[in-house]
Structure of TetR/AcrR family transcriptional regulator:
Amino acid sequence: MDAVKRTRLDPAQRRAQLIDLGARMLAERPLEQISVEDIADQAGVSRGLLFHYFASKSEFHLAIVRHSSEQMLQRTEPSESDDPMLTLRSVLASYVDYVTENRNTYVSLLRGTASGDPQMREVFEQTRDIMAKRTLDQLPKIGLTRTPQVELAVRGWIAFVEEATISWLRAPAITREELIDLTVQSLPALALAAVGFDAGPDLGLLQSN
Amino acid sequence: MDAVKRTRLDPAQRRAQLIDLGARMLAERPLEQISVEDIADQAGVSRGLLFHYFASKSEFHLAIVRHSSEQMLQRTEPSESDDPMLTLRSVLASYVDYVTENRNTYVSLLRGTASGDPQMREVFEQTRDIMAKRTLDQLPKIGLTRTPQVELAVRGWIAFVEEATISWLRAPAITREELIDLTVQSLPALALAAVGFDAGPDLGLLQSN
């Protein structure tokens, strides 16, 4: 950290550096234990200077959470592909890997104290809105029309993927590939349920499995 | 409330009364704004007596949350029926109606400050565990074997139902019946996805819908 201490940075770089240090620290401890003093120390700046960039501790924490959410959204950005199911698979593989690599950060944000803070929750909700919008944009490519049911199913599907991934990290009883398969297949399955396709009677087919 | 003030209650009744008053108050304001003084006033007991039943404000809040969760679980207890899909529909109708009737309480607990508290979160997780177990117990009746994938899908489904119901309450673009249909159909749909049934190729069927 000595090298960092001596570096002169312009304000935008300094701000980004402080947020980045905070985000890294988040992998090791919950947000509420990240103090402004620790970050100032690591960055080689005074506590006063840190408050020049962030008016309060909670504003700094919010900036860290926004940064983490943007990072996740960048990692899971859908690439253009001719096969919408391949696009979906690639997005979900990136999501599962991002959450795995950042498990402490991600799980502590979504299932920790931050989830009870109204401003933090707004960031998570906006992030989910972007994920839902991206997903809805892909649906016409697999022949599905956007209806209020389908929109609700997609919002629910985001929650499904989040919960399945976090549960899997806590007790990984299946492989990474199997988890990705489950999250990929669940989208058309839920979209079918949303347009009124009755899977019930077909379940008999599976008794031999 | 005057009638209540004068009533002599045995300790178990008094404890239940205090929790019940707290749970009712929860419909009007978030948990963190429920003060011990208000409850003591309404029950006609001294603040000191309230602390005789609950060692701290947070212990009192926790008792309120446990009470609400138990109430929801009671309302959504599956009744024995020959048709497992009818049982599922009746459970989900009860769930949607419970959440609708207790929308302030339920949404503020699951999506409010309480969701950031480790002990509260444990209560919510235990509640979801019970819902998942009840669901898993029904699955053999529709021909599904319990596998790690199916277990994960059921946990994710609980999150799906919770999120779809809360989103629907915020912006009800479909009817109560349509929401119940969606949550009912989503379970076999997700269970199918979990056993590796590929819904993708069948989506073409829906283009005419």
Observations:
- Chain A is about 70% helix and 0% strand.
